[in-house]
Input
Amino acid sequence: MAPQTGLVLGYDGIHPFSQVKITDRASVQELLRTLLDPLEPFFSPQKARVRIPGATAVRFDQTASEVEGICRPLWGLACLLAGGGEYRGADWWIQGIRAGTDPESPEYWGFPRDNDQRMVEMCPLGYALAVVPGIWQALNERERVNVENWLGNSINEKNMPNTNWLWFRVFANLGLKKNGGKFSQERLDRDIEHLNGFYRGEGWSNDGPEGIHQMDYYSSSYAIQFLQLLYAKLAGEDEPERAEEFKKRAQLVALDLIHYYDNEGRSIPFGRSVGYRFAMVSFWGAMAYAGVELPKPLTWGMVKGVVLRHLRWWQTQPNIWGSSGTLTLGYSYPNMYLTENYNSPGSPYWACLAFICLAVPADHPFWTSEEELPGDVIPKVKELKHPGHIMSYLGGHCMLLSSGQACGYPMKGTHAKYGSFAYSSAYGYSVPPGLFSLEQYALASQLGFSDDGGEFWKARRKSEYAAVEHRDNKPVLVSIWKPFADVTVRTTLIPPEPSTPNWHLRVHKIEAGREVMTADGSFAICNERTGDGRYLDLYNAEKSEGTFPKIIGNYDLNTPDGWSTGKQGAFAVSKGAVGIKALEEKISRSAMLVNADPNSNLVESRTVIPTLQHTIKKGEVAWYVSAIYAKPSGEGVPRETYLDGWDKVPQVPEWLKVEMEG
Output
C-alpha cells in the first residue's frame, strides 16, 4: 500500500486500517502503518509535538497534550522496529526527541511538575529507548544529557499518583539504564516494591493501595500486567527472581482474563479509559513477548485468535476515525460523554500497546500457530474473586456480572463505568449525557431511584458490602448499597444457566425510608430500523425487528400501548434482542421502553432500553426479581431466532424463595 500523506476521509471515505487483510505478522505491521501515516501533517516543524485534530481541553496543558500526540504512537513504532520492521517516518520521532528534550528549543516539552501528565508519556519513550538502540545512538553527547535530564532527573523526585503511574517512572529509568545513561536504581527498586503492595493474589493487582477496589483494564492490558511482562523481558537477565514472579502472575491471571473476549473479536467494555480501544488485548501479545509459558488449557492458537479477531472487529467500526484519518475520542464512534477529564485528542493512541505482538519474533508460536477459539476448554461460568466478577460465556456473548468496584476519585459517569450490574461484549455500557429524566440517565443494566417524581435519578456507585457468595454450590454476587441515606438495597446477581443461556437474574431487596420511583434497565440496544435507520416500530415478527410495547415516552402513563405488565415484560429487537421481565409475585411493576438520549451508549449512538418501573411507598420493603434477556446478533445467528429464548424464562431458585419468605 502506498504511503498515506494528508489522508482525508470524505463522505464515502474508507480508512486504510479497514482495508488490511489481517492474516499474519506482515499484515499487522501494515495495519500499524495505517495508524501512523495520518499523523504526518500534524507534526510540529521540529517534530517534537503532534497536534491531533480536536480542540478539546483536558486537565493538563496543551503542550502535554501534544507530547501525548508524539509519545503514544511510539508504543507501536518501537514494537515495530524492535521486531525488525521498518517505517518510513521513524526519523520523525528521533528528531522530535531531540527537540522536545532540549531546553533551548522552542518546542521543548518542559520539565514535569508533581503529578504531571508528562510522566505518563515518559513510559513509551523509556520503552522505545530500551528496545530500539538506534534512537540513543542517533543522539550526540549534549542531546543524551538532555534526555537524561528530562527523562530521569526530572521525574525521580516528583510526587506521582499512588496508582499504576509508578510503572511509568520505572520505565523512564529502565530506558536510560539500558543505554548506559544516568538513572536511579534506588528509585526504580523502591517503585517496584511499592507497586508490589498493590498485588492481591491469583495474578491480580489492584490499581491502587488498600481501601480502593479498582481492577479494570489498567490491572491487565493497559498498565500493570502489561508493564510487568515488559519489565520481565527487558530486565530478566539481571533480576531473574523478579522476572519469574511477574511471569507467574501473568500465568495465573491469564485463566481469568481469557473470559473478557468473545468469539466475534469483541472485548467487554468495563471501567474507565475504554477509549484506548484495541489496547484491551495488549496483555496477550506481552505474554508472548516476555516468553511466558501459557497455562493449560490455553494455547498460542487461542491467544493469537483473541488478538487478531479483536483487531478485525475494530476494522468493522468505521466511525472511530475523524475526517483527518486520526483516532477520535470515544469508543465505536466519537463520544465526549464517555471521556475522562484526562482524555486529550492524543490519548486514544495508547491503543498502540496492542502492537507489542510485532516485537515478538516471527518464529514464535504466537505467529506460527493456527488461530483457535477457546471452545469448551474454559468454563462457561466462572467466579473471579479479586475483581468481584462472575463471568459468563453463555448466550452468544461474553458477559460479566460485577459488584463492589468503584473509582477512588470523582469521574464522569463513574456509576455506569463501575457500578452497573452487567457488562457485555455485545452491548456496551451507557453513560449519562445529561442529568434530567430517564432518557438522559440511560440506566442500562442499572437500578435507578428517584424521590422527585422522575426528574433526577441515583444508581449504585459504591457498595457498603460486596462479595462472591455461593448458593447451592454456585456463585452469586451480593452487594449492599444506599442510593439515599434512608434507602437500603441488597442486590444479588445470578449468572445464566445452560438451560436458559440468554437470561440472568437480578434480585433486589429494597427497604425504603422515603417514597421512591424505581427503574430497572436491561442492556441497551441499537434503536434503528434496518434499511432506513429510523427508530424502531412495534415488533414485526415477519421482519424480526421492533419493540414491545411501543416506544412512547418514559412517563406517559396515559398511553396504554406504551406500557405492559412486568410479567409480560419489554423487549427490543434490532442487532439481536434484549429484554426484561419481572418474576416476583407480590408486586406489580410496569414494563416499557426508555428511548435513551443519543450518544449515551459506547457502541451504538441511538439506543433503547427495556425497563421495569414501580413506586415504593415510604416504610415499605419490596423484593424485585428481574430476569434480563440478551441474545446478540452474530455470524450464524438467523434474525428469526433472536427471540427464541424469550418465552423460556428461568425459574426462581428455591433458595431464593426461602430468602424472600424469610
The CA atoms of residues 72 and 349 lie 5 Å apart. The chain has a mean pLDDT of 96.
